[in-house]
Amino acid sequence: MHAYGSLTTLSGSVTGNKVEATSTGNTREARSFGGGIYAEPSNIVITRGQYTNNQAIATGPGARAEGGAIFMSTTYGTHSLTLDPTAGAITFSGNSVTANGVTTPNAIHFGRFDQALSDTSANTFLTIQDTNTTTNLITIADGITTDINNGKTFTLAQSAGNFLWGGPNLFDSAGGDTVSLTGGSMRLANGFTLDRGALNTTPGSLLAFNVSGGNLKSEGAAASLKNTALSVSSGGKLTVDLGSTLTLDANSTFALNGGTLSFGVDNGNASGKIVSLNTTTAPTFSGSNTLDISDWIHGTYTVLEAETPMASNAAGTFTTFTVGGIAIDPATMRLSAVLNNEDYELQVIAGLNQDSSEKTWGGTAGTWNYTNTNWLPGSSKFVLGDLAKFDGTGAGSPASPMAVTVGAGAGTQVETAGMSITGGSYTFSGGKIVGRTDISQGSVITPTGRLDIAGTGNIVFNNAVDFRGGLWVYAGGSSANITLADYTGGRVVLGNRPTNSRYSGTFSGKLNIQNQTLSGSGSSSYLYGGGLEYYGPASSSISLLPGTLIKNNSITVTDGSGGSLVLGGGVFAGLDILAGTIEGNKAIASHTTQYANAQGGGVIGSIRAC
Questions:
Q1: Coil, strand or helix: which one is 376?
Q2: pLDDT per position as a tens digit, 46-69
Q3: Residue 569 and residue 553: Cα distance in Å, rounded?
Q4: In degrees rounded to 5, what are phi and psi of residue 493?
Q5: Is the bond preceding 498 in cis, omega lying within 30 degrees of 0?
C-alpha cells in the first residue's frame, strides 16, 4: 500500500505482504521499503488492526531494507504516526527486514527514501494514546527504527493506554531522540532493546527516556537500554517484575527524582532487578521517592546493582513504602531501603515487627483489617501473615449470622497464613481474603494457606477468597452450609474419607481450581477428586455455579497396595448443579502386578443438573 495525503486513518489489517528489491552489477544500492505500507507524506492514525508477517527484502550492493510493516517517509511535508485503539486492539508482530540475507525483526521505520539526495523535512513523532479509555492493547513486537537527519528530532510519546513494546529498537536522529511516558502503561517485553544511532554527533549525547507519569514496566526476563538517560520523576513509576532484569549499558544513566520504584518479589529473596553497568556515573536519587514491592513476603531483596558506588544518602530519599500500591502499617510492618556492598547495591528489607500468631475474632460484628483492635487475645490487631480463627463466640444462630466486612471495600484485601471456622454462623463481604504459606514470620504458627470449616452453622462468603492451600471441611460430622461467591485456590475436600467423617451440609459456589496434583503409591492406593472431593451422604446438595473452572488437575496412583484406583481427575462428587467448565483434568492409574482402574478424567458422580 502506498498512502498519500495529509491524513490517513486506518482500521483494517495489513498482513502477509512483501516488497523485494535485487540489484546486480550496479554500484547503486538495492532499496526495499515498507513491506506492508509505504506512506508519503506520512500522517497516519491507526485505530485498530493486525499488521503481521510483512517483509521488506533487499539484495545487492549497499542493500537497504526498512519498514517491515510500515515505512514512514520523512522527506516531504510532515510525518507522524498515531496509535489510538478506539476501534479495537492494534498489533504489530512477525514483521521483518532482510538485507543481503540478514533478517531483523522490524515493524515501523521513519526515514528517507534516498539518504544521499534527500533530507528530513520536519521533526517526527510516534504517539501512543487511548482517547476513549478503551484499554485495548497496542503491541509492537518487532521494534521501531529511525533515520532522521537535517538536525531534526524523533519523539515517541505515550499519554495513555496499554502498550506492549518489544523487539530491537534503534533511534537514529540527528537532533536527538526522546521517549516520553506521561500516562498509561508501557510494558517492555522479553528481549526488548533500545539504542541510539550515530547521526547525532554531539559528544556524550544520550537518548532521553523520561517517565513523568504512568508506569514503565519491565515484565520479560530481560530488557536493556543502551546509550540512554532514563529518568523517573514525580508522577512516574518504574516497575521491574519478579524474574525480570532491566539492564542499562555502560553509557546509560539512571535518575530517580520523586518517582516510584516497584519490584516483584518472592520467596528466597528473589526479586526483579535493575542493573547499571556505567562505571563512571552512578544512579542518582533526589526528591521524595516511593518504594513498592508486589507482595508482602519478608526478606532482603537486592533490587539495584551498580558498577559505581551510589551516594550515601540514596536510600534516605525513599520516604513512602507500599505493598502492591497500598501503604503499610508501620506499627506492625517494616519496609526499608538500604545500601549494601560498599554502596554498589540497593536493597529492600521487608519484615514484621512481631512474629506471626493465631488471632481469634472478638465476637462482635465489625470490619476485619490491619488496624481495628477486634481480635483476641486482648484487643489485638490482625497482622498480615497471622492465622485467623472464628470459633463461634457471639456468632448467633444460622438464621442470624454475624456480619464481617473485610477491608474497606472490594478493592482491599487481607492476607492470612490460613483461616479456620470452628463454630457459629458468619457472613463475609467486602474485600478479598487471601490464604498463603509464604508470608508468616517466626515459628509460633505453622502456615497452611488453607480455609478450614467445621461445625453446623451457615457460612457465606459474598466476597472473593483465594486460599492457596485449599478448602477443607474435614472435621468429623460437619454439616455447615457453605456458600462461596468467588473461590480461587487449592483443592476442595468435603468430608474426611480416611476417618469415615462425612460432610452432610449444603455446598454451593463458583470455584476456580487449577493445576492441583495428587499422587499416591503403596498404602495410598485409592485417590478421589483432583480438584474437588466429596465424601458424604447422597442427600447432601453440592452445586458448582456458573463461572466455575476446574482445569488441569490430576490424580495419579502407581503400584497401590493390592491395586491402583483413581476416580475423578477433576471432581468426585454427586452434583445438584454443574454449570461451569471442567477442562484438561486427568485420572491415571498404573500397576505392575495388580489391577489398575481409572474412571472419570473430568467428573465422576451423579449429576442432577448440568
A1: strand
A2: 999 999 999 999 999 889 999 999
A3: 6
A4: -125, 115
A5: no
Q: What is the pLDDT of residue 27?
A: 66
- Domain limits of the chain? 358-604
Handedness of CA 405, 407, 412, 417 (dihedral sign): negative
Q: Which is it for strands 318-323 and 326-327: parallel, antiparallel or unpaired?
A: antiparallel
pLDDT reported for residue 75: 87
pLDDT at 42: 75
- Nearest one of 133, 232, 130, 121 to 179, comparing CA atoms: 232
Q: Is 400 helix (H, G, I), strand (E, B) or coil?
A: coil
Q: Do 553 and 530 meet the contact criterion of CB atoms below 8 Å apart?
A: yes
How many percent of the chain have pLDDT more than 70?
Answer: 96
Q: Cα-Cα-Cα-Cα dihedral of 232, 233, 235, 239, to 10°?
A: 20
Q: Which residues pair with 509 in a beta bridge?
A: 484, 544
555-567 mean pLDDT: 92
Strands 64-66 and 299-306: unpaired
For 32, phi then psi, to 5°, come to -135, 115
The pLDDT value given to residue 101: 96
Pick from 583, 573, 594: nearest CA to 528: 573
Q: Cβ(516)–Cβ(491) under 8 Å? A: yes
Task: Pick the closest to residue 580 from 567, 570, 568, 566 (CA basis).
Answer: 570
Residue tagged 536519587 (cell numbers): 285
Strand, helix or coil at 316? helix
Spatial contact of 404 and 361, defined as CB atoms under 8 Å apart: yes
Q: Is 315 helix (H, G, I), strand (E, B) or coil?
A: helix
pLDDT digits (tens, 9 = 90+) for 525-538: 899 999 999 998 88
Q: Which sign, positive or negative, has the C-alpha torsion 579, 538, 399, 484?
A: negative
Dist CA 593 CA 418 (whole Å): 42
Q: DSSP assignment of 284-297, as one string? A: EEES-EEEEESS--
Which three cell numbers mark 134?
A: 478503551
DSSP 439: S
